[in-house]
Amino acid sequence: MTGLLEILQAIVFILPAYFANAAPVVFRTGASRIPLDLKIKFLDRRRLLGKGKTIPGFIIGIIIGTFIGVLTSYVVDIYPTKSMHVMVAFLMSVGTMVGDSLGSFIKRRLDVKSGRPSYLLDQLPFIIIAIAIVYPFWPSILTVPIIAGLLVLTVVVHQGANWIAYKAGMKKVPW
Ligand code: CTP
Ligand code: MG
After folding, report:
1. What tens digit of pLDDT does each residue of 47-59 get?
2. Which ligand 1 atom sits closest to the C-alpha of 121?
3. Nearest CA to 141 among 91, 84, 75, 78?
4. Of 46, 76, 83, 100, which one has the greatest count of Cβ atoms within 10 A?
């Protein structure tokens, strides 16, 4: 059975991924425009990742996600040591930004324009890669129901957070 404690632990566990994913929007890194793909084109002559993925955005995501890991490491003990807590948050943040870029790579191959919505491709690659990269460190809590719950939670939180960012004027589109 999945108890309340496991659910709370899983939410604290996943927070760095959510913050890493949101950081580029909050810090408006798109304005700096140093594209992560350096404007390189793929075989289909479309951009590898497109203009929505920038180097500053990638870096700020990792910094903010790791910082959230540092903060939560002082509030809750879910790992044997604080340094492990922070290391998992760091790895998860890297996984988030890599997965987010992978999502864009797939969107471009499907000819979805940068910034246009793609249901599930906008929400799932980042969380799947983030969970996969840290799985070896915490397999005991990452049971099938917890992982399934986190995937569903991510879709809901992603929709909600983007809508709030749109209403707050941080994004031009509500997705
Ligand atoms: N962003 C960034 N660098 C990243 C990721 C995101 O600068 N590595 C910023 C960009 O300004 C981007 C915004 O955050 O427009 C929202 O991110 P996201 O929705 O993931 O990108 P999209 O613009 O929708 O692009 P794509 O279609 O490739 O998902
Ligand atoms: Mg988007």
Report:
1. 999 999 999 999 9
2. 29
3. 78
4. 100
Neighbour count for residue 4 (Cβ, 10 Å): 7
| 154 touches ligand 1 (CB under 6 Å) | no
How much is the average pLDDT of 142-147?
93
Question: Nearest-5° angle of CA 128, CA 130, CA 133?
Answer: 105
Q: Is 112 in contact with 91 (CB distance < 8 Å)?
A: no
Evaluate if pTM is beyond 0.90.
yes
DSSP state, 112? P
Q: How far is the CA of 44 from the centre of ligand 1 (A)?
A: 21
| d(CA 59, ligand 1 centre) in Å | 13
- For residue 156, the tally of other CB atoms under 10 A from its CB is 10
Q: In angstroms, rounded to a whole number, what is the distance separating the alpha carbons of residues 65 and 97?
A: 10
Which tokens sit at 37? 């793909």
| Close Cβ partners of 10 (under 8 Å, ≥ 6 residues apart) | 141, 142, 146, 149, 150
Which residues does 167 contact at the CB level (< 8 Å), separation at least 6?
Answer: 174
